[in-house]
Amino acid sequence: MIKKITLYLSFTLISIQSYSQEVTTNIFNDLDYASSNNTYEAHLKKDIFDDLLFSDSHNNQVTYKKEYLCKVYGKHLTNKEEKISFFMQLINRYKQLENETETYAIDVFGNKTYNGKNNSKTVTIKRKPNGDIVYNLNQQSAVLKMNIFNVWEYHDSLGNKIEFSMTTWKSFKRKYHTEENILSYLANHFLVPLLNVD
Q1: Is the distance from CB of 103 to CB of 63 less than 8 angstroms?
Q2: Average pLDDT value for residue range 18-25
Q3: pLDDT in tens, 89-122
Q4: CB atoms < 10 A from the CB of 163, how many?
């Protein structure tokens, strides 16, 4: 039986771990990374359409469409230090994963969308006309929305529920930038691990 969880979060988010290995810039101004023992490599580059592509030696492939980058990050990723910081966040996440294929884009209505696939699992994140953001993974779902008290809350089909204090919500926004990214993080934390239990 899934126990309902109600959390009022007011903790300090863990910062991205630092890496001693060097991130290098190649002749195309793209970023490359290799661990000190050469067991993990990653790359961040722009394609001919100005989409940003992340790939690594774990067969993960992530695409950030140009329109998404402009809307979410603006000119921030044109700064070398911020681009490297963004790259290291991706490394920190995907070095723990394998065979992920993900795309971040903007739909025809101007809303941010996410589509991801790993083996037989297909994930979508979309914003509804009323502002609710919905995460779907096969037969399970999660929602991030602002309630009638102007408090952001998360709930999912397994009965988990979170209401955010203003301080915690601001911390999440600083770390993850968008509501869609926050929902992805929460669903991966609360929903996905339980789906993987045999």
Answers
A1: yes
A2: 66
A3: 899 888 888 888 999 999 888 888 888 887 667 8
A4: 17
pTM (2 d.p.): 0.70
| Residue closest to 183 by CA, chosen among 148, 137, 139, 138 | 137
Which amino acid is located at 162 in the chain? Answer: I
Burial of residue 164 (CB within 10 Å: 0-12, 13-18, 19+) is buried
- When pLDDT is cut at 50, 70 and 90, the band that residue 175 belongs to is confident
The pLDDT tens digits for 44-87 are 999 999 999 999 999 999 999 999 999 888 877 888 888 998 99
What residue spans of the chain are helical by DSSP H?
Answer: 66-73, 80-94, 166-176, 179-190, 192-195
Closest by Cα among 179, 172, 188, 183 to 71: 179
How far does the chain reach from its first CA to its final CA, in angstroms? 14
- Listing DSSP states for 44-79 in one string gives EEE-TTS-EEEEETT--EEEE-HHHHHHHHTTGGGS
Residue 26 belongs to what H/E stretch? none
In terms of DSSP H, where are the helices of 122-165? none
3-class DSSP state for residue 176? helix
